[in-house]
Every structure is written in C-alpha cells, then in structure tokens.
Specification:
Chain lengths: 140, 436
C-alpha cells in the first residue's frame, strides 16, 4: 500500500534542481509527482518516480543527499469536492496529515494525492474502511 | 603495553641530562647564529658575542624573540649561517600575505631533521612493513618531503602521491593496501564524503593510522575521523620556520604531542607581555631550533596558542607534551566586541552527528553590527528526508554555539561537498568586514 517517495536536500544554489532532474532523466527515470518544501536557506525536493530504487541509487552516486520516505497515494475522482471528502474522512478520524501534494493520472482521468501521515497504517485502514482507493503502485 | 623506542637513550633521557644536552647544543647554535648578519647584530645588543656567553639554558631568555616579520625583512639570506654551496635544500613557506619566508638545510641539517621525523613516526607504532601514502603536497612545503624521508628511514613503503585527485588516492589505497596516511584533517574528511561517488567504500581500505596535521583541528574532528575510518589518528605539529614536521608528534597513547626537546627549546609566553608562563598555562609557543646549523632560528614566535601538559606520559618519554593548538594569536575574531577563536566553533560543530565533514565561518557587517554565519555541510547518511529535522538541526547548532561563544550565529545548511575544500589547508574563515 505504501509508495516510496524520494526526498533530496537542496541547498540554495542555482541550477541544482535541474541537476537532479537531469540525472533522473539520463537514467530513464520518470517523475510522476513533485513538490518542493522551501525554507529561507535550503529546500527539500520530494518526488514520486517510476523506479524509486534505481533513482535513490543514481542520486547518491551523483553526490546528492537523498533519502526515502513512505507515503500513501490516494486515488479520487477528478471533480469539485473530491479532495474535501477525503480530508473529511481523515479529519473525523483524527488522522494528522504532515504534508500532501497532488498529480493527475491522465490515462484513468483520476486525481492522485500523495499523503505523508504520521501514522500511515492507521490512515490506510481508515481510508480503506471508507471505500477510498489507495494506489498500489504508480509505475504505469 | 611496553614502549618500543626509535632512539631509546635520547627519548628517555632524564630532565637534567636533557637540559645539559640542550645547553651544549644551544651554544653550537649560537656559534652558527653569530655568523648570520641578522643574529650577529641582535645577539651583540644583549651582550652575546660568543657561545661561552651562554652560561645556562635559562640564558636563552635574554635573547629577543625572532618574528615572522624579522624573517621577511631579512629575506633571503639574512639568517643564512653557511656558504650557499653548503646548502643542499631550500624550503619556503607559502607567503599568503606578502614576502615568503625561506628555510635552508645543510646535509647534516637534513639528516637530523629526518631522524626526528623517523622518531616521530616510530612513536605512533608505525613500522617497516606499513604502506605509507603521503598525501601532503611535495615541493616547497616541508610537510610532504619531511614525512617522506622520515618514513623511508624507518623502512616503510612510501607512496609519494602528494595532495589532491581524490579518486586516484582511493585507488592507490585500495591497490596497495595502504595502512598509514599523512594528510590534513579537512582532506581526510572530504575523502570520506566523496568516497561513494568515486565507487569506493571503507571496506575497500586497509587503513590503520593517519598522521593528521598542517592545520589546527579539534579533538572532536579526530574522534570523527577515527570513527568514520576505524583508524587511530595522530596529531602532529610543525611549522616550516622550524623545519616543519617532526617537531612535535603524538605517541601511541595519543595524549598530547611530545616536543623533541633534544632538538628544540620549548617555551610558552604570554603573547601580550612576552613573559614566560608556567607549564599548564595557555600562551604562545616559542621555539628555538637546536639542530639546524645552516639556518639558526632562536626564540621564534609561532603565534600558535597552546599549553604544556604537566602530567607524565605513559610511554615513558621524558620530552614534554603540548596540548592541541587552541588557536593563533592572529586568527582570533572579534565579533561585536566578543573574542571568538575559530577552534571554539569547530569544537561545537564537529560534535554534532548530523554535521558532515566541512564547515566555514563567515563574518560580515550589517549596518554597524558584525554578523557571524556558520555554514555547515550536512552528513548525508543522517538525512531523513524531513524538513523539520533540518530546521531542528539548525536550531541545535545555533544554540550549542551560543552556549559556547555567547554569540548567536546564523546557520546555513549545505550539501556535502558544496563548501570549498582546499586539497591542502582548509580555508575555514572568511571575513569580509571592511578593514579600517
């Protein structure tokens, strides 16, 4: 149920983000979702890719400071109120979201939301009990 | 464990006999010094016209200090005591500010120096059979050639690679199963950080020891290196004006650096008053070279701050030990009126496990106020992927620094390998405040 997210530490230096993407591109790794957490002096790039094990390996070999985190990817209808419904379920069950970001699944016309939970097992159970679809993988 | 000596008699000489030997050698050095244009005048001013004017070792204190500025003003031959045709080697300091300084060796001087270096290496437990990769730069710098010949004299297998080219260094270490390194602490830290990207890891290496020197470093840096590589790291001290390495070296007990007192007179002074301080008290190191007759150096002010350890060493050597170099009289930063030594900052940042292998101290001015920024590289293996971890790390470094130096610094986190490394000496302090 859990999907591997890769976090890359990026200091505030021009072109650094491009270098990450180039390394991934050269190794034929596709980025499916991306977000950047920024602070005044550094950023952390969070990505979900089709080949996480290869990605973490090539990033480290190229001198990037990177690590993996488990995230939960939720599938939903791409329509107004879709996300509010999911958040409602989480809220009612007192499930804390640390951060989240979304992407579109073009083939299925679905919206996908990446969640980082403090307690992912509990979150997955609550969502599944409420008939929410959890993505098993996103390699397609 | 029992101590094995390179030169048993000299290394364990009683203090009385050691001082007698110093007196005899000081007189010989005075005889040489009188032949130089610089010391001839200087010694005459304090009534020393022949070696017999030195009655006891305490008489050395009558002689004025020699400073770096004296060396510059008397460049290039003012301190040369023999004919140039008797000089077989010249070394020179980098001279980052202005005129360089020069050091001359006769054949005998080189031999005595090499013996001291060999004695130093032997004291750490390194032996014939060890593979020694010398990563200090060769050339005018005394560090490279000094250790090279000392190691050869013991019979170690020497790889004279010099500094730089990390990938080749790692390949050599792997191919020849290097057991002992001579390297600056900052470069050894850097190699660990970039090892993986060159396709190596510590299990490829056969290292047992590293002689780290040429730049002051903290005990925490030593411990970090020992842990990262699973080795023993030995501190050493030397400066080119006094023939570089082989002046003071740690023995296998790693409890302070033995100054070879048969070859040097060690004094510690109050840098303000110039008065000698007691053993155990911090001050500026002043040294007299007793074995270099081609280029005498008497009461040279090193500008390095340290103290003499007062307890005796378990190894049985009678030669006194110096503490780590605590700073330099001229590297103290004054930040908004507070005195800060870069070594205090290093002490703090290097004990934090999430900090990687390099850091830099940056000082600038915002309006009328000084601003201190400490830039640190993070240790990639400790990165969890969470922003809150990095925020907490910044806060922790700032708070621990404030507790130590009373100033609240700005902390910048950098990626491993991002801060400048000089594959010789690290440039730790960048001060861009306008000077008056």
């Amino acid at each position: 149920m859990k999907i591997t997210q890769i976090s890359v530490f990026l200091e505030n230096r021009s072109g650094r983000m491009r270098q990450v993407c180039s390394v991934l591109g050269q190794n034929n790794i596709n980025i499916r979702a991306l977000t950047v957490a920024e602070t005044e002096s550094f950023g952390v790039l969070r990505i979900v890719v089709d080949k996480p094990a290869v990605a973490i390996d090539v990033l480290k070999k190229n001198g990037f400071t990177a690590n993996i985190t488990d995230v939960v990817v939720v599938e939903m209808q791409d329509k107004p109120g879709g996300l509010a419904d999911i958040l409602g379920i989480l809220d009612e069950n007192k499930i804390n979201v640390e951060y989240m970001y979304a992407f579109l699944e073009k083939s299925a016309d679905k919206a996908m939301v990446v969640f980082r939970f403090e307690h992912p097992e509990k979150a997955v159970k609550v969502l599944t009990d409420n008939n929410v679809t959890i993505a098993k993988d996103i390699t397609v | 464990m029992e101590t094995d000596f390179f030169c048993h008699e000299i290394e364990t000489l009683s203090r009385e006999k050691l001082e007698n030997l110093q007196l005899q050698r000081l007189r010989e050095i005075i005889a040489s010094a009188i032949k130089t244009s610089f010391y001839n005048k200087r010694l005459a001013k304090v009534g020393i016209k022949s070696p017999e004017d030195i009655k006891s070792i305490a008489d050395v204190r009558k002689i004025p200090f020699t400073t770096k500025d004296d060396l510059r003003q008397n460049f290039p031959t003012g301190l040369l005591a023999v004919d140039m045709s008797d000089i077989v080697r010249i070394h020179s300091s980098s001279g980052t500010t202005g005129i360089p300084t020069v050091i001359y060796f006769t054949k005998d001087d080189l031999n005595s120096w090499t013996e001291l270096v060999a004695r130093s290496i032997y004291a750490t437990g390194a032996r014939k059979g060890d593979i020694f990769q010398n990563m200090m730069s060769y050339g005018l710098f005394t560090g490279g050639l000094g250790l090279h010949y000392g190691a050869e004299r013991i019979g170690m297998t020497v790889i004279p690679v010099g500094g730089g080219n990390t990938k080749r260094q790692l390949q050599l270490m792997k191919d020849f199963k290097t057991t002992v390194l001579h390297i600056t602490p900052s470069y050894l830290l850097h190699i660990h950080e970039s090892m993986e990207s060159h396709g190596f890891n510590t299990s490829d290496l056969s290292l047992k020891k590293a002689f780290i020197g040429a730049e002051p470093h903290s005990e925490n840096t030593r411990l970090k290196l020992e842990e990262l590589y699973g080795i023993d790291a030995y501190n050493s001290y030397g400066l080119s004006e006094l023939s570089g390495p082989g002046l003071a070296f740690e023995c296998k007990y790693k409890a302070g650096m033995h100054v070879w007192e048969d070859a040097y007179i060690l004094e510690v002074i109050d840098p303000e008053t110039g008065k000698n301080v007691e053993d155990g008290q911090e001050g500026e190191i002043v040294l007299t070279n007793l074995i270099r007759k081609g280029n005498p150096m008497i009461r040279y002010r090193t500008r390095d701050l340290a103290y003499v350890l007062t307890d005796s060493c378990k190894c049985g050597r009678t030669h006194r030990r110096l503490s780590r170099i605590l700073g330099r009289t001229d590297d103290m930063l004054i930040i908004n009126g507070v005195n800060v030594f870069p070594s205090q900052i290093e002490e703090v940042v290097m004990r934090i496990p999430e900090v990687g292998t390099n850091y830099q101290i940056y000082v600038d001015k915002i309006g009328a106020l000084d601003r201190l920024t400490v830039k640190v590289e993070i240790y990639s293996k400790m990165f969890t992927g969470e922003v809150k971890q990095l925020d907490a790390l910044k806060k922790k470094i700032a708070e621990e620094l404030r507790a130590s130096i009373t100033i609240h610094p700005l902390i910048e986190l950098h990626e491993p390998g991002a801060l400048p490394v000089f594959e010789g000496k690290a440039k730790r302090v960048v001060d861009v405040r306008p000077s008056f």
